[in-house]
Amino acid sequence: MQNTNKLHYNKKEFYRRKLPHYQNLGALFFITFNVKSALKTSEIEKLQFKLEQRITSLPIKQQSLYSKKLDEEYRRYFGEYDKALHTGNNHWLKNEQCAEIVSNSLHYWNNKRIELYSYCIMSNHVHAVLRVFEKDEKGNNIYLQDIMESVKKYSANKCNKILNREGQFWQNETYDRIVRNRGELYRIISYILDNPVKAGLCEERKDWKFSYIKDDYNEFM
Predict the structure, then answer these.
(1) Same domain, 173 and 67
(2) In 10 A of CB 52, how many CB atoms?
(3) What is the CATH number for 173?
(4) Which backbone phi and psi does 213 adopt, to 5 degrees?
(5) 133 and 65 in a common domain
(6) Which of 19, 46, 124, 137 lies 20 to 30 Å (CA to CA) from residue 87?
(7) Residues 43 and 29 in one domain
(8) Which range of residues forms the domain containing residue 57?
(9) CA atoms lying within 13 Å on the CB side of residue 90
(10) Element holding 36 (H helix, E strand)
(11) What are phi and psi of 124, to 5 degrees?
(12) Which has the closest alpha carbon to 125: 163, 175, 182, 183?
């Protein structure tokens, strides 16, 4: 699976679009990406406006990129965004062929450029936990943004063919967060695997066809 899509920003360990993105080499990430227009633009802008209001109301010291309080606000924003997705639009991943393609695109890089811990593919969004290796086989740095562009481009092309549609498939921006410790890792994995249960799509975690957990963490199932 080749990634030929040109980057729209320089490769570096931090960049910002609407949200901050830390690209620490070798880091463990919690990521969420959703299909295009899963939420209406007006809904996204409303959530972002609320986030900006909360941030600007913080004392200047707490608006630092490494502020614990600022991190809490971004986590709160994600919770609101993710909750809205469950009642959102464009449930293209209900098509099992499309869900399988997304699954395959994540597994493609597993043990090559990433270590895949867990994922859950919902009807219009995907949650995953993965560690990005520091170097590729040629000694070049590996960045999360490169992995995600590859996964998105490959799956978008395949899914569009199945759905007999054209145009953008995935939302441009991916939510990503560095997992800081084992306790946080366990909480995030539980959150991911509980998604279909909380949505009433299955009774137990193990019943969801498009969830994955690394063998080392099978106790979560």
Answers:
(1) no
(2) 13
(3) 3.30.70.1290
(4) -140, 135
(5) no
(6) 19
(7) no
(8) 39-88
(9) 17
(10) none
(11) -140, 10
(12) 175
Written as six digits, the tokens of 109 are 């890089």
Per the listing, tokens 């509980």 go with 194
The predicted model scores a pTM of: 0.85
CB 39 within 8 A of CB 88: yes
Strand order in the sheet with 28-34: 175-178, 28-34, 125-132, 114-121, 211-213
**CB contact at 8 A, 150 and 102:** no
Helices 68-85 and 41-56: angle between axes, nearest 10 degrees:
160
Q: Rounded CA gap, 181 and 103, in Å?
A: 26
Structure tokens at 27: 């880091």
For residue 1, tell me if it sits in a domain: no
The string of DSSP letters for 163-182 reads HT--S--B-S--EEEE--SH
Radius of gyration in angstroms for the set of CA atoms belonging to the chain, rounded to a whole number: 17
pLDDT per residue of the chain (221 residues) written in tens, 0 to 9? 544 344 444 555 554 555 555 677 789 999 999 999 999 989 988 998 998 898 888 887 766 656 788 888 888 988 999 999 988 999 999 999 999 999 999 999 999 999 999 999 999 999 999 999 999 989 999 999 999 999 999 999 999 999 999 999 999 888 898 998 999 999 999 999 999 999 889 999 999 999 999 988 877 76
Residue 199, sorted as left (phi over 0), alpha (psi -120 to 50) or beta, turns out to be alpha
Measuring CA to CA, which residue among 36, 32, 49 is closest to residue 88? 36
